[in-house]
Design goal:
178 residues; 8 helices; 39% helix; disordered C terminus
Length: 178
């Protein structure tokens, strides 16, 4: 699916209107309420630490792996809605220009937790996680993106914490030849 960023807002609106002609549901049903994304709370070392605890408790590591590489024990068994193999997102390989399946911002990542991703094994956690907990998980997941210059990694390092890569021994350091 290509990016439609090159289309003007008016062209995108026209495209959506055209696509809605494909199904009579759009004429009979009203759209649901937009997903409400609460303001992101302050980023702290404690929010990152709590997010790491949630990553373990909610067993996110089973698919995404302990260091977020998409290599958890369940990863090889995952399939999409058409029973095709699908890999979990590899946070560790993400760089400054990386994006998730549905966006690139912290708000996009928050929305993924709360709604899940249709067609993929990623479930909605709206019924099992509170909004502030979801934000803490977002903050932690950003620290797994060791190649990305993020405010989360800066906060963690500034507070004397190790990045996920440093904790696992995979972070490159100028003094050790990695």
């Amino acid at each position: 699916m290509p990016s439609w960023i090159s289309l003007s807002d008016e062209n995108r609106t026209d495209l959506v209107a055209y696509i809605k002609t494909f199904s009579p549901r759009w004429q009979a049903e009203k759209p649901g309420d937009p997903i409400k994304i609460p303001a992101e709370p302050a980023l702290t070392k404690e929010s990152i630490t709590h997010g790491a605890e949630l990553f373990q408790k909610m067993e996110c590591w089973k698919c995404h792996g302990q260091q977020g590489r998409g290599d958890g024990p369940s990863a090889p068994t995952l399939t999409d809605s058409k029973e095709q193999p699908i890999r979990p997102y590899n946070f560790a390989e993400a760089g400054n220009d990386s994006r998730f399946k549905c966006g690139e911002t912290n708000q996009d990542l928050y929305r993924i937790f709360m709604t899940g991703l249709d067609g993929t094994p990623m479930p909605s956690f709206a019924d099992v996680i509170q909004p502030n907990d979801a934000w803490d998980l977002v903050h932690y997941l950003r620290t797994l993106q060791v190649h990305r210059k993020s405010k989360e990694n800066q906060v963690l390092k500034g507070a004397g914490g190790k990045s996920a890569a440093a904790a696992s021994g995979t972070e490159k350091s100028p003094g050790n030849g990695n």
